[in-house]
Write a structure and sequence with these properties.
Shape: elongated
Strand content: under 5%
Helix content: over 70%
Number of helices: 2
Length: about 80
């Protein structure tokens, strides 16, 4: 699949929706599941939120890298 084609755009949008949905489901279900832990559950939820944020940031970095690679044969050299 070529870069910046309609099929590529659809694939990127589907991945964005999937990642957002998974993050939203985790954020909804985990406090409910961890509520019986009390204070420790709050700590675990904060840790899981950090992990989810890291996953989303890695996804964004991958997307930006893919967009830059589609612009040309490679990154221009910086002086």
């Amino acid at each position: 699949m070529g870069c910046f084609t309609l099929g590529w755009l659809v694939a990127v949008l589907v991945w964005i929706v999937v990642v957002c949905a998974v993050v939203a489901i985790f954020r909804l279900l985990l406090p409910f599941v961890l509520s019986w832990l009390g204070v420790a559950g709050d700590l675990v939820m904060r840790i899981i939120n950090i992990i989810l944020a890291a996953i989303v940031i890695i996804f964004v970095i991958y997307l930006v890298y893919d967009l830059i690679m589609c612009m040309g044969p490679g990154m221009p050299r910086l002086r």
